[in-house]
Write a structure and sequence with these properties.
- There is one protein chain.
- It is built from five helices and seven strands.
- It has about 190 residues and is of the alpha/beta class.
- It has a single domain, classed as Maf protein.
- Strands 1, 2, 3, 4, 5, 6 and 7 form a seven-stranded mixed sheet that branches.
- Strand 1, helix 1 (about 10-15) and strand 2 form a beta-alpha-beta unit.
- The radius of gyration is 16 Å and the shape is elongated.
- The relative contact order is 0.18.
- Nucleoside triphosphate pyrophosphatase that hydrolyzes 7-methyl-GTP (m(7)GTP). May have a dual role in cell division arrest and in preventing the incorporation of modified nucleotides into cellular nucleic acids.
Amino acid sequence: MKLILASTSPYRRELLGRLRLPFDVVRPEVDETPAPGETPAALALRLARAKAQAVSAAHPDAWVIGSDQVADLDGTPLGKSGHREAAIEQLLSMSARAVMFRTAVSVRRGEVAFDSVDATRVRFRPLSREEVERYVDAEQPFDCAGSFKSEGFGIALFDAIETQDPTALIGLPMIATARMLRAAGYPLP
């Protein structure tokens, strides 16, 4: 069975590679603009589904994995910062606060789909502007929701992480993904 990751994210590629299944990578063409009033969890799920559907339409015989992550700061979605100043402001807004990270995954082939949304709560410690600037300059996390990489130097920004699946914070909830791939017929442990 052909498997496709509908993402060019190196983080998701590395995570999916842990399952030791052969897969291809296809960039999904999806508008990621939030809909008015859309909650962060609904946005993450809609985008994960849209990415899987977009690639599945071009590859109807393959199982396609789409995923998306949205940081949820008191109901306000925070996406990828894109550049240094936005990353600094984003991280400062999360200083000494708890932020939910909604990571959705959709596994689809044709009209058959499995979906899941993981919620990971991250408690940021109090952060000074100098610490944030030092972190942003060192890691340049402009392509990450919330502007940090928990698998790297970003772990130093936290007081605690509360989650059912530690891989969700990196960008692809592997416990749910493995469960869905087993349901699709993949021989996983």
